[in-house]
Amino acid sequence: MALTERHVARVTRDVPFTGYSPEFTYCTDEDYDAIVRGLIDSCPTPDDLWLFASGSLIWKPETDYLESRIGRIGGYHRSFCMRIIQYRATPDEPGLMMALDRGGQCNGVVFRLDPEAMEDQLHKLARREMRTMPSNNTPKWVTAATDRGPVRALAFVMNRAGPSYVGRQPLDQTVRMLARACGHVGSCAEYLYNTVAHLEELGIHDRHLWMLQERVAAQIAEDCGMAGDER
């Protein structure tokens, strides 16, 4: 990989958390209770609960799991299509977060969750993936192909009517935002680095993300004046 931990370290800053943005309406406990009830009622295979992960859930799962497999879903692809101004960005230096947007297909990981702990696990996932009303992510039951047959899995896909959806940005703009944005939980460059590194470890080569990490590494090197032996 061209993007390394040294690049990530160069853009990491100590950004204090100043509270959630007032421009969004955040989910309440009652909202999460309703979301989880709806997921439980709609679950097509209650005794065989799977989660599809395409990004940070791969390298930072929110829940324990019983089994994992490589899986592929149709109809969605990874895209840095969600504008963020907190967590890994600030209002002064907005960033982009990756989501599953419509079109194409996506290789990722499916995790088999414990059906005995379904309600607790769904609460954790909903609170992580759905923070605003309306939500940027929408839960959807999808079919994931695996080497041991298809499974029905829960995926969180981009809500194009959500408050942060920006669609596909010009490549140069995407690169600059990923290379420069940093918030109280880390940087967008760190997010990209971790995602690509873990996908490669699993044998999943995403050509677009691979190109993107090369461009982001070059942008950080240019911004920070990194010498050749630092790159």
Q: Care to describe what's here?
A:
The protein has 231 residues and is of the alpha+beta class. It has a single domain, classed as Gamma-glutamyl cyclotransferase-like (Hypothetical upf0131 protein ytfp). It is globular and about 55 Å long.
List keywords for this structure.
about 230 residues, alpha+beta, Hypothetical upf0131 protein ytfp, five-stranded mixed β-sheet, two-stranded antiparallel ribbon, 7 helices, 7 strands, about 25% strand, globular
In short:
By secondary structure, the protein is an alpha+beta fold. It is built from seven helices and seven strands; from the N terminus they run ααβαββαββαββαα. It has one domain: Hypothetical upf0131 protein ytfp, CATH 3.10.490.10.
Low-confidence stretches: none
User: Could you say which structural class the secondary elements and strand pairing correspond to?
Assistant: alpha+beta
Globally, the shape reads globular
| Assigned CATH class | Alpha Beta
Strand order of the largest sheet: 2-3-1-5-4
What sequence of helices (H) and strands (E) makes up the elements?
HHEHEEHEEHEEHH
Number of strands: 7
User: What is the helix content?
Assistant: 25-40%
Could you tell me the mean pLDDT?
95
Number of domains: 1
Tell me which CATH architecture applies here. Answer: Roll
Radius of gyration: 18 Å
Query: In the CATH scheme, what's the topology name?
Result: Hypothetical upf0131 protein ytfp
Strand content: 25-35%
Distance between the termini: 11 Å
Biggest pleated sheet: 5 strands, mixed
CATH H-tier superfamily: Gamma-glutamyl cyclotransferase-like
